[in-house]
Give the backbone structure.
Amino acid sequence: MASKVEPSPALIQTAPRQVKAGFLQQAFAIAGKDLRSEWRTKESINASLSFAIVILLLFSFAFDVSSEFSKEISGGLLWLVFAFAGALILNRSFARELVNDCLDALLSSPASGAQLYLGKCMSNFVMLLIVELMCLPVFTVFYNGLWVSQAPMLLAIFVMGTWGLTAIGTMFSAMTVNLRLRELMLPVLVYPMMIPALMAAIRLTTIVMAGDAVGGDDQIWIRLLIVFDAIFTLLAVTLVETVLVG
Amino acid sequence: MLQKLTITLAALAALILVWNLHTILLVLPDEINQGAAFRIIYFHVAAVFTSFCGFFLAMGLAIAYLVKKNLQYDAMSAAVTEVSAVFATVTLITGMFWGRIIWGIWWAWDPRMISYVVCLLFCWGYLMLRKAVDDPTQRARLSAVLLIFTTLDIVIVWKSIEWWRTQHPGPVLSIRNGGGMAPGMEAPIYWNVLALILLATSMALVRMRQESMQREIDAVRRYAHAM
Amino acid sequence: MDARNFQFMFYGFSVAWSIIALYVITIAAREGRLRKELDRVKRMVEQGEKELRK
């Protein structure tokens, strides 16, 4: 009879560290896969970007662009465009895995639901941020934005706001992936959920677009964005396994 | 037994409502500033309380489902959410009528009313999701997760809309500010709250039984097709 | 009571209670439909069992 082999203490000590590094590694691998696939086809980004520019143009017919009024609504305008364009990216997020049973393959892989969710969330975040940064010059030219002096703050708002949209949107994309009315259900469920993040991002962007710094009273919106992002990312990471698998 | 309980609750609710209606319409005098219109508040506040309790109860039941995996909890949370949506609609309508009388406008962008519209949108999405999923277990799972997300979000939405309205002050028109009660006039509100909660409970029990019936139909149909 | 205020109060009450009444009617209609469907599928099962026993 073969004697039982005891694992060496060195191996036991490294094992937990390997598992921790593996969690983010797996998530990055999934994000990388999605971004590489998107880079080769550029379907989502093209559709999203052209949709965003069309909406920007359409809004110019709704009100007088040159007036003071357009400065007041600049943040609202920009973030509504991002929210609508973002829905195109978010819809494709899990739906692209339905072809050839790729979703089943991913779920059967060693990657947990949380890793899959984080990977997809990160790739959606990068794609949406690219669309936003490409829309920004167009918006600045159309609506005379004066944000250059506040560029770092604007970037921070984009990052925090976009993470909020993609954290919620990716979770709901996972929820609706197997429904027959997927394209209808996702906007219906996601937009009301995004209201606090959109409100905060809109308020902060309006201030920054006028060239002003974010003052004392308005810092509450930065805190709201951070808290929103943290709470819903944590909740999504906890519950996504239930949604995808059971 | 459940049927007897439902009928008892509904009958009790009807009795309290009729007795309260007598008090509100015939016993209480008109309010000095608002005339007869303030009587709407008795139902508005009661409906708010009922629907608000319902939303949080539904979230508790959703969590109970995810923990225990018993489809009864799913049936209960769906029933409670649907009934709460009805009372949320009543809240909005009565609030709008009160605003129309007192301020002359149907909608004053009051933070609480806006939050209630968002609540209704969440309920609507929840009910649409339930219709879109055929498998009972998947339906229960997705509905429970959605309810947890939306109930947490409604708390954040509530506070953010309040902050937004403080920074963008509109006309200072608030049902809380404008609807203050003289001390002797508050008792009917509490009786109405009790009556509406009893009514909501009886409606939820009926809906819950219907959800169980639907599950029974699905099970028997599967057995029939298998044969 | 001031006539116009009373009118609006009456409309407000009516609309609110109509919503609740409409919901109760919807529940009652659904109950009828579900009972009919349950009877139908139970009959289907009985028929199927009869045929199996033949």
